[in-house]
Design a protein that fits this description.
heterodimer, A: 194 residues, mainly alpha, Rna Polymerase Sigma Factor, Chain: A, Arc Repressor Mutant, subunit A, 2 domains, 8 helices
């Protein structure tokens, strides 16, 4: 009975608590809700422990449960209208002139989020940028770029057409890119010594 | 005016779309030509792609990389208590 031997919920919080909390917080930018979702994840895991067949690691299994909790949270926000519907981002005039050329060209990114020592700072800026986006744009970006959900699924969650979905993803990307550039990259700019 | 040439505004939109679905051939070619000549748009594309790679990477939330906040101690205790309570409930119902 190898599986039941591993059944040790008491240690879950210490082993996976930080990871799951970080995972949730970076996707919803709200610490009390992130805490609740982590708690719900562990409780759901406790209830459905029998279904865990050990095909994946406990961590992967728990993350899977948390992912569902996060998506339910998004669905609820959309349904209740707490994710503001009217996006302040109506057109892209601030990015492009009438000829469709960049008003301010994208700068070279000198900081690299792949470097672990920069990730802490990067995640902080990313979260600020995500919470500055209109709610629905933030949700759509998170679902697509962080959680890797299919656009079909995302359209369904947000209850919008594929075209609208594409437009929202575009806006989310172009705004987030610029926000990161302003707040993270330029804040960390260092000249290439060569 | 070369009508087959896309503007930066059009290209950035199509690049975004290409991250979600396959584009028709003429658009792919149009993007490719534009990116060859336009440093800004090709930077935009590279940055969006590398952002996706980082955000989807597994290691982003690992504790030893310390990428973001730790579960606060009070929440930790609260969750442990609730787990313990529910664990006991499950144990008792098993015995019944």
């Amino acid at each position: 009975m190898g599986i039941t031997d591993n059944f040790d919920p008491e240690t879950w919080v210490d082993r996976y608590g930080n990871y799951l909390y970080c995972y949730a917080l970076s996707r919803i930018q709200d610490s009390p809700i992130a805490e609740d979702l982590v708690q719900e994840t562990f409780l759901a895991a406790l209830q459905s422990w029998k279904q865990f067949e050990g095909r994946s690691s406990q961590k992967t299994w728990l993350t899977g449960i948390l992912k569902h909790k996060i998506m339910d949270h998004f669905r609820k926000k959309i349904r209740e209208g707490t994710a503001d519907r009217s996006s302040s981002i109506e057109n892209l005039d601030e990015f492009f002139d009438e000829k469709g050329q960049w008003k301010q060209v994208p700068a070279k990114w000198t900081a690299n989020p792949h470097n672990l020592y920069e990730q802490h700072e990067f995640m902080k800026v990313l979260q600020n940028c995500l919470s500055e986006l209109p709610g629905r744009l933030s949700i759509i970006f998170t679902l697509r770029e962080m959680m890797g959900e299919s656009t079909q699924k995302i359209c369904k969650i947000l209850d919008i057409s594929a075209t609208n979905c594409g437009v929202m993803l575009y806006r989310a990307r172009i705004y987030l890119r610029r926000c990161l550039e302003i707040n993270w990259i330029s804040g960390n700019t260092f000249e290439d010594s060569r | 005016m070369k009508h087959w040439m896309f503007s930066c505004k059009e290209v950035t939109q199509m690049v975004s779309e290409s991250m979600d679905r396959d584009l028709p051939r003429y658009q792919r070619i149009g993007i490719w030509i534009h990116l060859m000549m336009c440093k800004s748009c090709s930077r935009y594309r590279q940055q969006l792609m590398s952002l996706r790679r980082v955000l989807r990477s597994e290691g982003l939330h690992d504790e030893d990389s310390e990428p973001c906040a730790k579960l606060p101690p009070d929440a930790r205790e609260r969750i442990k208590r609730s787990l313990h309570r529910n664990d006991l409930e499950i144990e008792t119902t098993k015995d019944l």
